[in-house]
Structure prediction request, 356 residues.
Amino acid sequence: MQPLPWPAEDMNRRLLTWYGRVGRDLPWRRTRDPYRIWLSEIMLQQTGVVAVIPYYERFLKAFPDVAALAAAPLDQVLELWAGLGYYRRARFLHEATRRVMSEHGGRFPEQLAAIMALPGIGRSTAGAIVSIAFDRKGPILDGNVRRVLCRLLAITGDPRSGKVEKQLWQLAEILTPEDRPHDYAQAIMDLGATVCTPRRPDCAACPLSGLCQAFWQGLQEQLPQRSVRKTVPLVRQVALLIGHQGRYLVRKRPLDGMLGGLWEFPSATVPEGEQPEDTARSLLSGEGLSAVFEARGEVRHAYSHFRVELFLFTCEGSGAGRVADEETRWLLPSELAEWPLHGSHKKALTLILGRE
Ligand code: SF4
Prediction:
């Protein structure tokens, strides 16, 4: 790697002075509790600060520490996560608290390797926890830091490619100071979130503009280079809202699969060349019902790796003989509104029953 064009201490000094003046006051910044910092880092992975704050506060009210979360049933955890999306984060978080209880005696580990061994915690999140909770050097390379570093050193190439990724980690390692890593981690993340933003970075307000190679070359809008987007496949599915005495049938998805542990109305994928009505009819007979069903429109939803077009059908079916158990429930619309349905089925609920 090329040597830095300026001393790392110079960058740190500018950044920390700026952070001391304008750093954001956020709920997870008022604590050094690793559990709370970990929770905030996981919630912030795919979601913005403003959306995260109420979830973070509600979650901590229900599960104030590792032991409380580890002891909670997964359904309750998913219920409190509902709306944040990317539910794998909640499942891993829950599983990781159980590991902290069983393998670390309930005490959150302090070493980077031990933290990274917990489910759902990658290198950057582990670095953030080490830096912010324990004030020890833990390099971070989340989306904000990645963007700042690419611009600061005018790094070209796809930032997700192996070569550039390696270079960025080396830089993160060099630039993270031994002294005040707690403040550094928050300062560089703040800079990316509030000044060095993806579009129209506010270079005039940036404490690093004097060092920034992208700024001096007028490349700040072009870097980081955009990754080539893969085409996201579209899946066609049908969902049946089977009603009985004002309640609707929902099922829990298997824990080990996609969207595991979340709930949905009975559904099926529409085979290539088949009409959604035909798939709905087969689904209905698979449920042991021959009721008349009605097409009720469709909703679209994007998951992380695919998009779904969900065709909705309603029908009245008998609940007799269909015993509610751990995996199957008959719920009132008011209960469904609070239930951890996954994204497209939440939209289905809103469309058909007018509920959030
Ligand atoms: S000068 Fe502009 S492009 Fe460079 S780090 Fe600051 S905000 Fe980002």
Residues 88-104 form the longest helix (17 residues). The longest strand covers residues 234-244. DSSP finds 15 helices and seven strands in the chain. The domain at 8-216 is CATH 1.10.340.30 (Endonuclease III; domain 1).
